[in-house]
Amino acid sequence: MPNNHYYNVIIVGGGISGTALLYTLAKYTNIKTVALFEKYNDIATLNSNAKGNSQTLHCGDIETNYTLEKAIKTNKTATMVENYGKLYGYENKYMFKIPKMALGVGDKEVQFIKDRYKEFKDAFPYMEYWDKAKLAEIEPALLKGRDANEDIAAMGTDKRWSAVDFGEIAKSFVRNAKKENSDIDVYLSKEVEKIKKIGNKFEVIVEGKPYYSDYVVVNAGAHSLLLAHQMGHGQNFSCLPVGGSFYYSKIDSLKSKVYTIQNPKLPFAAIHGDPDIIHDNTVRFGPTAIVLPKLERYHHAHFLDFIETLAPSKEVFEVFYDLMYDDDIREYAIKNFLYEVPGIRTKLFAKEVQKIVPFITEDDIEFADGIGGLRPQVIDKVSKKLFLGEAKIETGEGIVFNMTPSPGATSCLGNAYKDAELICDFLGAKFKKKKFNKELVNEK
Ligand SMILES: Cc1cc2nc3c(=O)[nH]c(=O)nc-3n(C[C@H](O)[C@H](O)[C@H](O)COP(=O)(O)OP(=O)(O)OC[C@H]3O[C@@H](n4cnc5c(N)ncnc54)[C@H](O)[C@@H]3O)c2cc1C
Predict the structure, then answer these.
(1) Which listed residue, 20, 262, 264, 300, has the most CB atoms within 10 A of its CB?
(2) 381-439 confidence digits (pLDDT tens)
(3) Using CA positions, which residue lies closest to atom 38 of ligand 1?
(4) pLDDT tens-digit readout, 379-391
(5) DSSP per-residue codes, 240-286
(6) Minimal-distance CA residue to ligand 1 atom 15
(7) CATH code of domain 3-441
């Protein structure tokens, strides 16, 4: 261990974001000493764990609320994860080629898919248009029990590594980082309690003990904003923790990842069906979206931390009011609340699933207990808007805070690249961008 608990960089949080940065610093920079602190006893036990998310590598090709521009950007970061997996031989170990599609149901949505396919096919040349007859061959569960007059169509592919165990990838980042740089320390079961700026260094208090660094990156999920607020940063942001639950199908249903058409006003994916890569022959449907007064889904809740991170104010209430004033969003919020209420939830959710698999009944699905994490959605109090994705507080003082709702696992290496750039600029260190681009960015 380096002397006096001093490091060039300290990373707070051992999910996929923190570990991707650890790996990037170890392999692609000349930064010597790095420490990562994770409060639980293993890497990626929360949102980055395969139980916490939908296990989808978001390439932008089936996410119908992304514009073409956003899809191209997301695809770039997804490609980094695929390339990383190929570099270490993780194909069919931590990443899988499950066919995937965006499904349109009814004439209006079918037309939407046709138009979108035309718009996307140059940027995503591997995507195919699948009409009803083709879908009957590829994914018969979509047709069985469906009204013969109801048209369906999809744009999809079986050529991408569409499903990823982000938790295992996070653990592999740590293993591979340690092979690249032996001056890395990863501390488990160590919660960062406080961060203070002292002169041009940071004092990071972990269980009462001080550690020091020149630069700090906080990748602590919803806790990132809590730590930022405690240091007086990010006061124009509020965090709205949105839980997402899943339902398991008890019967044989889908063989592919089937996404439905999303409402562009909502930052969350519409309900989709995904063959689960950690439970053989099980399909998950979800996630739901429910605002929860806590910063972690399944652990003891510190209500005051939630309040401090939400930082209620006139502007925050105005954002809530505007959201609830919109009929679609109000209906969505109410429905999603009911999907969590025992006794009625399975019956109501089955109706949602029937859009994808028409023959499923409430007896064929069950609420997946303990599955699904929490998305730290950020509200910008100045523009009075809910961010549709990730948010970063770049202080310019040697500390960065990242809040990473979906597709944060997919963009882990893209975000690590941005942070490595900031860190190297600040510390005057070398970032081997050519090597990063050659190994991770260019399509293989
Ligand atoms: C229901 C759902 C479905 C999703 N589906 C997808 C998907 O299909 N594809 C996709 O790309 N993304 C998906 N996401 C988003 C994705 O899961 C997250 O963006 C990603 O896991 C965030 O990773 P992270 O490392 O930033 O945060 P986390 O995984 O939350 O890790 C943060 C870590 O910080 C630690 N920590 C917190 N506070 C402290 C502290 N004070 N000291 C030390 N450690 C601390 C925590 O213990 C935790 O391990 C989904 C999210 C949800 C909730």
Answers:
(1) 20
(2) 888 888 878 899 999 999 999 999 889 999 999 999 999 999 999 999 999 999 999 99
(3) 220
(4) 998 888 888 788 9
(5) EEEE---EEESS---SSEEEEPPPTT-SSPPPEEEE-SSSTT-EEEE
(6) 406
(7) 3.50.50.60
